[in-house]
Amino acid sequence: MPEPTKKEENEVPTPAPPPEEPSKEKEARTTPAKDEEEVSPPSALPPEWSLGESPAGEEQDKQNANSQVSVLFVEKPQGGTVKVGENITFIAKVKAEDLLRKPTVKWFKGKWMDLASKAGKHLQLKETFERQTRMYTFEMQIIKAKENYAGNYRCEVTYKDKFDTCSFDLEVHESTGTTPSIDIRSAFKRSGEGQEDAGELDFSGLLKRREVKQQEEEPEVDVWELLKNANPSEYEKIAFQYGITDLRGMLKRLKRMRRVEKKSAAFAKILDPAYQVDKGGRVRFVVELADPKLEVKWFKNGQEIRPSTKYIFEHKGCQRIMFINNCQMTDDSEYYVTAGDEKCSTELFVREPPIMVTKQLEDTTAYCGERVELECEVSEDDANVKWFKNGEEIIPGPKSRYRIRVEGKKHILVIEGATKADSAEYSAMTTGGQSSCKLSVDLKPLKILTPLTDQTVNLGKEICLKCEISENITGKWTKNGLPVQESDRLKVVHKGRIHKLVIANALTEDEGDYVFAPDAYSVTLPAKVHVIDPPKIILDGLDADNTVTVIAGSKLRLEIPISGEPPPKAIWSRADKAIMEGSGRIRAESYPDSSTLVIDVAERDDSGVYHINLKNEAGEAHASIKIKVVDLPDPPVAPNVTEVGDDWCIMNWEPPAYDGGSPILGYFIERKKKQSSRWMRLNFDLCKETTFEPKKMIEGVAYEVRIFAVNAIGISKPSMPSKPFVPLAVTSPPTLLAVDSVTDTTVTMKWRPPDQIGAAGLDGYVLEYCFEGSTSAKQSDENGEAAFDLPEPPKIRIPRHLKQTYIRRVGEAVNLVIPFQGKPRPELTWKKDGADIDKNQINIRNSETDTIIFIRKAERSHSGKYDLQVKVEKFTESASIDIQIVDRPGPPQTVKIEDVWGENVALSWTPPKDDGNAAITGYTIQKADKKSMEWFTVIEHYHRTNATITELVIGNEYYFRVFSENMCGLSEDATMTKESAVIAKDGKIYKNPVYEDFDFSEAPMFTQPLVNTYAIAGYNATLNCSVRGNPKPKITWMKNKVAIVDDPRYRMFSNQGVCTLEIRKPSPYDGGTYCCKAVNDLGTVEIECKLEVKVVAQ
């Protein structure tokens, strides 16, 4: 049996003090008398051992510190005493009158341990505020105190630059009848956080975590002997080395054991201050009495010890001996012996034997998701074993994946669902050794049982992407590199090893590259989704028969909405001939959501059936559209006057050959006197018939009539005038017709003039004959007095203003009327410069009395000599007209500076190559100073081709330019001198300075940023910003870091540095972060904004 270690062998025996109550014995010993403090025997502990309980000097300093005027504290916490298992509360109060906010309060044990991290089962921190008194109250409550809670505590309060602190002591006494089990090393070690004894007040949280290593067997070390013989400066080093955390508490206990007793009259030799024995060992207590007749009693924690197999008493002369067999942890306590009225006491420390690791941990390899068990065996059942991962203690808890299972001597660390993060070095530590192993967690080889497949689905159908892998693990879905967000329409399904992405009611924006990536694996499963929609042609805006009516001469832009995904290709055709896209008069234009047929200037020949054909990979669509071009009707042919009276006539006509594509609604009739140019409307209500009876005409005056056709579009051009007619009363028949004579071949007849002859007079007679019994008559080729009209030779009456050259400017209209005479109606022939006239450029209109030459827009090519020939039977008449079409001239060909002297410059130039078909009447000369280049006129209407410019400013440099001039005005452009004329000062030569070109290059910079925008779903939204830079930066728009390229929903503009992104009819899907990026050779700049699309409730 090992002998207990003696702490003081030379201690002088002192008389035993009178017996006291057991509950107050420790308290009495912790307060030594003044004479005990003054007497220090040679073998006593040095003063440094009194750290556990402050010496007189330290007590005095503490009292002085606490007695100073407090800066913040109104009430400081006071030291106290508590029994083991009881509660105690310390209170500190701070006045809040001068504080703008709550002060910061910290509670400490010893020098450094912050108790805020120890709050739990045995420690609670509270704080309250009373509004009436404006007082902060801070409480620290220790619940079910343990003996190792004793020690020095400190409370600190801070507020801005103010600081206040207060120290106080806590003493913990053993309860009556308890037998505390104290282990010198382990009693002062901390307990793990989150366990049953969380919140223990120890110093282990401040100890540096040491790497867990396998330690060899070390010999037994008596810490008490080490502390006794060590220098006080090495106390903390020894405490750290041997795992003693509550150094202050240990020193206080040593001080109580080492206290020098007064010389005793009953004891010749007292008990040693402390004894140490291993668990299961035997200890021997010996005292020597001064008087062997004195009765001796032994006590443990105030209770008398009776002889038993455990406690054996012996008497050897004056020695009184007590043996304690089979020491257990419950024997760790305070013992004292009484002899008469005196007593002496000691402390017994029972040390547990070290726990050894009998079966080491083994290196383990596992796969992710598996259950891992690391097992070791120790030398005793239910031993305390701590587990570490890479040197950090593993603390199991309700939410932890780590569990510790103990089966007798077996200790097992269980890891549920291992991950790669669990790969580490694990170790189990006991008081007598440790064991380590390495755990390697790898991923199981992943097999793709069913890969994703590319899909092509119709718009509105369901998209289902399905894959199956060999492991039941989670994964992530991405679309075009961005995470897929679940919604009411998009669902992500994970059942075992099967992963699905289901999209109901597919939209065009669902198209893209989808990738499924299993977590923790570098494998990806890609698939492409292509959303298609058969093309559709929307003709809702047209008539039932798909007819489009357009007025001739106007522009038709027929926009037909279309749909389809991908956007279909539209082809327009007419009569099996395709209409191409381009710049023709009839062309097609294609857009993502519509196709447009454009007819710039509609003509009547454009009427017909047009076909539109849509085609994409989902199918085809066809439609036919009838285009009807309506125009003014053609003028009717010249009307015929079938019957005349004294003031009336009857006229009829044929409908126009072309009604303009719209039914003829009626006609307007006009008349005029033959010699007049004023036409008069005869009806203001449309005439529905093709016959009309003009009235109220003057008898004997020649008239002409013409017709206008009217449809829904308008009034046609007038018809050609009718043949002139004269309203006359009908003459009476001749009288007294008789046969004068008859021969074989002739008959001679006589008659008298009619009784009534009209205002037109009597021009002659017409003779008719027929065979007897026949009803048809024939005219005779002979008459009595003027049976036939004689031919009238033609005569051309050239107007006076056409007898000289007729001059007009380019673009003006030419309308010349040339009257003539001749009967019967003459034949007219026009020629230009001896060649026939092109009737497509020049319009010729002929009547019985005049001819008209008409040019709508004169051109210089219309200039020339026009010859008119009028022919009546064998008679001819000719006349000529000279027409000159003039325009503004071109500029002079060259302008040169011939000489410069003094303040003068001599200029010369050559006449223009193009005189505008008219003689050059003069020139205009202008000058400009090189600095300002502002032009000033020097000479006007100058006729020569050289000139001298005078009175120029000395020292200036001039340029000159010359305009040509004819009867139409100045030329549009001028010819400028290539060189400049320098008016130099005499005797001085001015040298022009050389300037370096300024570098205008600049990196891109946004002058107006993008701003966060809210948009309404279905209404176009725009994002605007402005940027500058040289060279001009390239602009790129991005949505959620993805560039927007060829997306029909977006339109991008850039004008004068203002960048605009238009989002057409956005939906909530279009919300996100938009970025505008500007890049040139000097740098890159980006700016972002957020767009939120709100849906308005219907």
Q: How would you describe the overall organization of this protein?
A:
It is a single chain. By secondary structure, the chain is mainly beta. The protein contains 6 helices and 81 strands. Strands 29, 31, 32, 35, 36, 38, 41 and 42 form an 8-stranded mixed β-sheet that branches. Strands 66, 67, 69, 70, 71 and 72 form a 6-stranded antiparallel β-sheet that branches. A hairpin with an 8-residue loop joins strand 53 and strand 54. Belongs to the immunoglobulin superfamily. MyBP family. One of its GO terms (biological process) is cell adhesion.
Mean pLDDT: 82
Task: Write down how many β-strands occur, each being a DSSP E stretch of 2 or more residues.
Answer: 81
Low-confidence stretches: 1-69, 177-219, 782-789
Radius of gyration from CA coordinates: 64 Å
Topology of helices and strands:
Elements: H1 25-29, H2 34-38, H3 56-67, E1 73-75, E2 80-83, E3 88-95, E4 104-109, E5 113-114, E6 123-130, E7 135-142, E8 151-159, E9 162-173, H4 223-229, H5 235-241, H6 247-257, E10 267-269, E11 274-278, E12 283-289, E13 296-300, E14 303-304, E15 311-316, E16 319-324, E17 333-339, E18 342-351, E19 357-359, E20 364-367, E21 372-378, E22 386-389, E23 392-393, E24 402-407, E25 410-415, E26 424-430, E27 433-442, E28 448-450, E29 455-458, E30 463-469, E31 475-479, E32 482-483, E33 490-495, E34 498-503, E35 512-518, E36 525-537, E37 547-551, E38 556-565, E39 569-574, E40 577-579, E41 586-591, E42 594-599, E43 608-616, E44 619-630, E45 640-644, E46 649-652, E47 666-673, E48 680-681, E49 691-692, E50 703-710, E51 735-742, E52 747-752, E53 768-769, E54 778-779, E55 792-796, E56 806-809, E57 814-823, E58 827-832, E59 835-836, E60 843-846, E61 850-855, E62 864-872, E63 875-886, E64 895-901, E65 904-909, E66 922-929, E67 935-942, E68 946-949, E69 957-966, E70 969-970, E71 975-976, E72 981-982, E73 1002-1008, E74 1013-1016, ...
Parallel strand pairs: 2-9, 11-18, 20-27, 29-36, 37-44, 56-63, 74-81
Antiparallel strand pairs: 1-3, 3-7, 4-5, 4-8, 6-7, 8-9, 10-12, 12-16, 13-14, 13-17, 15-16, 17-18, 19-21, 21-25, 22-23, 22-26, 24-25, 26-27, 28-30, 30-34, 31-32, 31-35, 33-34, 35-36, 36-38, 38-42, 39-40, 39-43, 41-42, 43-44, 45-46, 46-49, 47-48, 47-50, 51-52, 53-54, 55-57, 57-61, 58-59, 58-62, ...
